Amino acid sequence: MSGCADITSLALLDLFDARRRMIAAARPICGNEKIALSQAAGRVLVDKVLAPLDIPGIDNSAMDGYALRLNEVCEDGLPVKLRVPAGAEVLCLPAMGCARIFTGAPVPIGADAVIPQERVHLDDDERVHIDDEFAKGVNIRRRGEDTCEGDILLSAGTRLNAAAIALLASHGIGEIDVLRRLKVALVSTGNELIEPGTSRAPGQVYDSNRAMLKALLMQSSCDVLDLGVTADNATELQKTFSQARDEADLVVCTGGISVGEEDHVRPVLERFGGVSFYGVAIKPGKPFTLGYLGDSLETGIPFVGLPGNPVASLVGWQLLALPLVHGCQGRIPAELQQFPVTAGFSRQGPRGRRELLRVVLDWYSGAPIAHLAGGQGSHMLSAASQSEGYLVIEANQDVEEGHVHLYCPIAQFLD
Ligand SMILES: Nc1nc2c(c(=O)[nH]1)N[C@H]1C(S)=C(S)[C@@H](COP(=O)(O)OP(=O)(O)OC[C@H]3O[C@@H](n4cnc5c(N)ncnc54)[C@H](O)[C@@H]3O)O[C@H]1N2
Ligand code: MOO
Question: Where in the numbering of this chain does the MoaB/Mog domain appear (predicted)?
């Protein structure tokens, strides 16, 4: 028998307390590298970036049309005296004339408006007549109106998404200092586990958690140290954990974390480090564990113990492991995003834990209605693979069709 206390006899931690403890456990890793902007998607900025330039760099046109001085507009129309395509030099607008201009082209000095071509007509002498009233400055994008030299473009700890990369590129920045990748050791435990792509004997189970977690770690820009499958055996686990401790910044382990005598993760963890907390009041994901390898959580390597049941593993990763990963990556962990959504079904609620039902949203009536994405067992990946989010059912509450519950979109975990 394992010497660990039964999870059912322990007070389970509230989800939000557990998240706070995950965030508190994060220590940002040290070590930077300078990389090409083209390689920087998903990486985290070491320092804030100041704008080296004004953007736009010059006053330029927002429309294809005609640049002119509004106070020169008259019944006779204005002759076209210049043609200014994008990339042209900055010219001066001659008196009593206008410029044919194109989107992005420099507005000639003296012009105070750009009139879109569909709001003018040309007479037989090719003079431009304006069909409406226009205000000064219309359709002129002013120098520095987006960002001025010296402005903070992005702050330290920003994860570079496509828009952030475009912002840096727009300032001519071709290389950037980012934090090195977080190195995460990934371990599956279980005698029943085999590799996808091999043939399955009765009782064997394909290791889907490691495939899933590898994808999730890569999505989070981590460097994955894949330590494969370790048998349900304390000696083997001990060997794997000591390699993980020596080579990685963080350990993510799935399976073997529950209370049976075949579950060796916690006893081994307690011998080679310690358990910071065990058990969270969520369904699925109850046996989620935060521990460490080494002397303490402060000085050792954080250890995330995810349950073996695949959906429990996924939910534990998204709700609890991810804030720790983000903190170790130097990011500021985001609040959990939840908003009210109406349930389109009735169902008996969870006892003693918050339940995260895998749902899809139906938008046909205007406001979203949540429907179950399929079977809700923590071993059922089919619904998890279809679902767009979780309908969060408070402990000891039932779901009634038409009633409102909080909804937690999965898209927030992809950033
Ligand atoms: N007596 C109790 N039994 C269980 C409790 C409990 O409180 N008392 N908790 C249950 C809950 S909740 C969960 S979740 C599971 C978690 O168990 P473990 O983390 O110890 O996971 P295993 O026992 O190793 O495996 C559970 C299940 O998942 C399959 N599995 C494991 N690893 C993988 C993998 N890498 N890929 C795919 N599938 C995997 C495994 O074959 C089992 O079917 O414990 C309950 N039991
Ligand atoms: O909490 Mo377990 O994670 O229900 O399957």
Answer: 185-327
Structural domain harbouring 155: 33-54+146-179
Q: Which residues contact 24 (CB under 8 A, 6 or more apart)?
A: none
- The answer as to whether 1 is a domain residue is no
CATH number of the domain that 160 lies in?
3.90.105.10
How does pLDDT run across 174-227, given as a tens digit for each residue?
999 999 999 999 999 999 999 999 999 999 999 999 999 999 999 999 999 999
Contact 254, 307 (CB under 8 A): yes
For residues 175 and 185, membership in a common domain is answered with no
pTM for the predicted model, two decimal places: 0.91
Specify the ligand 2 atom closest to the Cα of 286. Answer: 1
Identify residue 25 by its one-letter amino acid code: A
Which residue, by CA, sits nearest to atom 4 of ligand 2?
284
Which ligand has the shortest distance to the CA of 260? 1
Q: From the CB of 285, is ligand 2 less than 6 Å away?
A: yes
Residue 191 located in a structural domain? yes
State whether the Cα torsion 377-381-383-388 is positive or negative.
Answer: positive
Which structure tokens are listed for 123? 């007479």
